[in-house]
Amino acid sequence: MDSGIGLLAATAAVRRLRPDADLVLSLDPDGMPWGPRTPEDLTTRAVAVAEAAAAHRPDALIVGCNTATVHALSTLRARLEPDIPVIGTVPAIKPAAAGGGPVAIWATPATTGSPYQRGLIEDFADGVTVAEVPCWGLAEAVEHADEAAIDAAVAAAAALTPEDVTTVVLGCTHYELVAERIRAAVQRPGRPPLVLHGSAGAVAAQALRRIGARPEPEASDPGTVTVLLSGREGVLPAPALAYAEGRLLQAVSPAP
């Protein structure tokens, strides 16, 4: 679940680990973007989207959104667990800091500077220089596959990123869909190759662990994909097909 197509990164990661998995993608086009909403309003939207997915009786629910994880994870777990394990998406600060830094965390304005993110920095990046970079408009630009807006938002965030940064944490799942464009914008001439850390792979692996499933990337029978748009069955939004992750999921037959 997510406000929009930011869930594509984690969903595609699950698809690669378990091609036979039946997937339910619950998006909220009526309420997107979630980032500017108050925590209370965001939580209300997230609960509605989660309950729409839960009606399909999934084995687990991935909250494919950092901002929703920050503000709504405890509420979602209180409502759905233990019947449905809920897996949040946490910025990959711990593995990024393990490289020694300096580190920049690109995140939505709602996540940047939040007590949740500051807590992760304190817990996992002690002694490493960390810059929090708010990415104004980037999630929305990615959501609409607006090439000019993506370029402008990436350039603006790159300008806020310190010159000596060696590692960037992609603290919003939308950003993983344009990771190479971010790398190109931040990579400095004469500096070592920039390291990017997303969350999709780790989240997908954690979801399988929570339900006791093993990765089987060679599984031959493709699973189905059901798309929910603010609770209504539909199809992947057209902008999703601008990204490799969306095209991978479109190639799967929809659920009957």
Q: Tell me which CATH architecture of the largest domain applies here.
A: 3-Layer(aba) Sandwich
Percent helix, as a range, is: 40-55%
**Beta-strand content estimate:** 5-15%
Radius of gyration: 17 Å
Number of helices: 10
InterPro entries: Asp/Glu/hydantoin_racemase, Asp/Glu_race, Asp/Glu_racemase_AS_1
GO molecular function, one term: glutamate racemase activity
Protein name: Glutamate racemase
Keywords: Isomerase
Can you describe this structure?
There is one protein chain. With 256 residues, the chain is of the alpha/beta class. It has two domains: 5-89 and 201-250, Rossmann fold (3-Layer(aba) Sandwich); 93-198, Rossmann fold (3-Layer(aba) Sandwich), CATH 3.40.50.1860. The chain is 40% helix and 13% strand. The chain contains ten helices and nine strands. It has helices spanning 8-17, 39-54, 66-80, 93-98, 115-124, 138-143, 147-160, 179-186, 200-210, 244-250, and strands at residues 23-27, 61-62, 86-87, 103-107, 130-134, 167-170, 195-197, 225-229, 232-234. It has a four-stranded parallel beta sheet with strand order 5-4-6-7.
